[in-house]
Amino acid sequence: MNAEKADMHLIYKTVNGNDRARSRFHNLEVYRTMQEPREDGDGEESQTTPTPWKPNEEFLKVLVGMGISRVAAEKALFYTDNRSADLAAAWLFENSEADLETSLAAEAGDNMEDTFGDAYKMAFVVNMSLEMGTGKLASQVAHAAIGMHRLLLQNENKYGEMVLQWSEYGETKIVLRGNTTQHLVELERKALCLGLPTYLVQDAGRTQVPVGSTTVLCVMGRLDLVDQVTGSLKLL
């Protein structure tokens, strides 16, 4: 399979993956209905008493502090399995046209984890010691995203499933504050030890920064693994 066909194959699988994700979200409504307690004499031999789903209060506080309504924040946390405020915020951004203000009467069951599968994200760590301007910083993050995308396509057999899972759940991306070049190098080393793909941008030095400057580190992988690398960093 040549590169062009491989790209189209991946795009095709991703589009269908998005359809599957929407179907899963719809099916959760059916699932919650099925888990409602039944009245005696309804023909069922046993009754189910579900555990009411509750949002993570810490994540909820962060989202509300960002100006997001409580209803929308709760819905985002439900659809991202209460994993993190970052993931919930990304879900809201990717689903901005959805009905976010209708109250979510949700219940979590034993198969919630199976429904959502593993969540993935792409994290960008910026070298703040370089004091790049907004435009320069944005271009460097873009370089990192393109570089990571190429790396993933070149290793589709290894990373293809990860890309599909990432695409299904909103293609989460976050930009974080790194300290220095050495800090980014240390983070990359830690990510590689965890088996995560990384891409480190070294600028050509045409504007603002010296040639060869390490500007941005991109790390991608399962949410819990990426958080082991970047979880202590602040959002940019």
UniProtKB/TrEMBL annotation:
<protein>
    <recommendedName>
        <fullName>peptidyl-tRNA hydrolase</fullName>
        <ecNumber>3.1.1.29</ecNumber>
    </recommendedName>
</protein>
<dbReference type="GO" id="GO:0004045">
    <property type="term" value="F:peptidyl-tRNA hydrolase activity"/>
</dbReference>
<dbReference type="InterPro" id="IPR002833">
    <property type="entry name" value="PTH2"/>
</dbReference>
<comment type="similarity">
    <text>Belongs to the PTH2 family.</text>
</comment>
<dbReference type="InterPro" id="IPR015940">
    <property type="entry name" value="UBA"/>
</dbReference>
<keyword id="KW-0378">Hydrolase</keyword>
<feature type="domain" description="UBA">
    <location>
        <begin position="54"/>
        <end position="95"/>
    </location>
</feature>
<dbReference type="InterPro" id="IPR023476">
    <property type="entry name" value="Pep_tRNA_hydro_II_dom_sf"/>
</dbReference>
<feature type="compositionally biased region" description="Basic and acidic residues">
    <location>
        <begin position="31"/>
        <end position="40"/>
    </location>
</feature>
<dbReference type="Pfam" id="PF01981">
    <property type="entry name" value="PTH2"/>
</dbReference>
<dbReference type="Pfam" id="PF22562">
    <property type="entry name" value="UBA_7"/>
</dbReference>
<dbReference type="InterPro" id="IPR009060">
    <property type="entry name" value="UBA-like_sf"/>
</dbReference>
<feature type="region of interest" description="Disordered">
    <location>
        <begin position="31"/>
        <end position="54"/>
    </location>
</feature>
<dbReference type="GO" id="GO:0005829">
    <property type="term" value="C:cytosol"/>
</dbReference>
